[in-house]
Write a structure and sequence with these properties.
Layout: E1 14-17, H1 31-39, E2 61-72, E3 75-83, E4 94-95, E5 98-100, H2 108-120, E6 127-132, E7 136-137, E8 142-151, E9 164-171, H3 172-175, E10 182-188, E11 191-203, E12 209-215, H4 216-230
Parallel strand pairs: 2-8
Antiparallel strand pairs: 1-10, 2-3, 2-5, 3-4, 3-9, 6-8, 7-8, 10-11, 11-12
C-alpha cells in the first residue's frame, strides 16, 4: 500500500488526546530508573511497530537514532533536532539525531553515535549508551533502531547546517505525559493515515518563543518509550 506525503501535519485534525492515561511518575524518570527499566524490558511490547505502508520505489534500509537524555539537576531533558527544509526525507521535521547505517558501522549503536557526532557535533565521550528500543519501520522504508543514552550537560554543539536547522531540548516529563499526546487522522483519495503528535512550545536559538511540532516517527518512538517507562 502506498500513501501520500503529509507536508503540513499541524493542520490535520486532532481526533483525540490521551489525557486519560497516567503520566510516568518522576521516580521512573531518573537516569538509574530508566537504565534499570531498559535492562528488564524482555516482557515489553511496543505500541507502534511502524508507520504502515511505504512510499513507492523505496528499498528497506537500516538506520539508527540516538535518544539523548541530558542529565540536568532539575531533571532529564531530551535533545532533539529540527531538520533543514530542503532535505529529501523528513524536511523541516523534528527528529532524533541519527541516520542511515553505513558499511563501516559495527551495529546500530555505532551508527547512532557516528551520525550524532556528524549532525550536531555531540562527542561520543559525552554519551553513555544505556539501551535500545525495538526497531521502528518508517514510511520512507528505514528500519530504525532507537538507541537510548545519557548525556552530561555542559557540552558544546556544532550543527551540520546542511542537515540540521537547530537543536533544542524538551523536558522528558512533558513528553512522558500522555495529556500532551494527540492523535490525528488524515484521509486522501480513499487512503487513511493516522499519526501521533506532541506539540511543544520552547525557545529557539535566539531565545524567542517557537512552536515545535513533534510528530510522526519521532512521536511514535517516544510513545513506545512512554509505554516502556510506564510499564503499560
Amino acid at each position: 500500500m502506498t500513501r501520500p506525503a503529509i507536508t503540513q501535519p499541524q493542520l490535520i485534525p486532532v481526533t483525540s488526546i490521551d489525557d486519560h492515561l497516567p503520566a510516568v511518575p518522576a521516580s521512573a524518570l531518573t537516569a538509574e530508573a530508566i537504565r534499570g527499566r531498559l535492562a528488564t524490558q524482555s516482557t515489553w511490547t511496543p505500541e507502534f511497530a511502524g508507520d504502515g505502508g511505504l512510499f513507492p520505489g523505496r528499498a528497506p534500509s537500516g538506520a539508527a537514532v540516538l535518544i539523548p537524555l541530558v542529565q540536568h539537576a532539575a531533571g532529564l531533558s531530551l535533545l532533539l533536532t529540527r531538520r533543514t527544509d530542503h532535505l529529501r526525507d523528513h524536511a523541516g521535521q523534528i527528529s532524533f539525531p541519527g541516520g542511515r547505517v553505513e558499511p563501516e558501522d559495527d551495529g546500530p549503536v555505532a551508527t547512532a553515535l557516528r551520525e550524532t557526532e556528524e549532525e550536531i557535533g555531540l562527542a561520543r565521550t559525552c554519551i553513555d549508551v544505556i539501551g535500545q528500543l525495538p526497531v521502528y519501520s518508517t514510511v520512507t522504508a528505514f528500519q530504525v533502531t532507537p538507541v537510548v543514552a545519557l548525556v552530561e550537560p555542559g557540552f558544546t554543539l556544532k550543527l551540520d547546517d546542511f542537515e540540521v536547522a537547530e537543536a533544542f531540548e524538551v523536558p522528558l516529563a512533558f513528553l512522558m505525559n500522555p495529556a500532551h499526546h494527540r492523535h490525528h487522522r488524515f484521509e486522501f483519495a480513499g487512503t487513511e493515515r493516522r499519526f501521533l503528535s506532541m506539540p511543544w512550545q520552547g525557545l529557539d536559538v535566539e531565545g524567542k518563543p517557537r512552536d515545535y511540532f513533534i510528530w510522526g516517527a519521532t512521536a511514535a518512538m517516544l510513545r513506545n518509550f512512554y509505554r516502556l517507562l510506564s510499564g503499560a
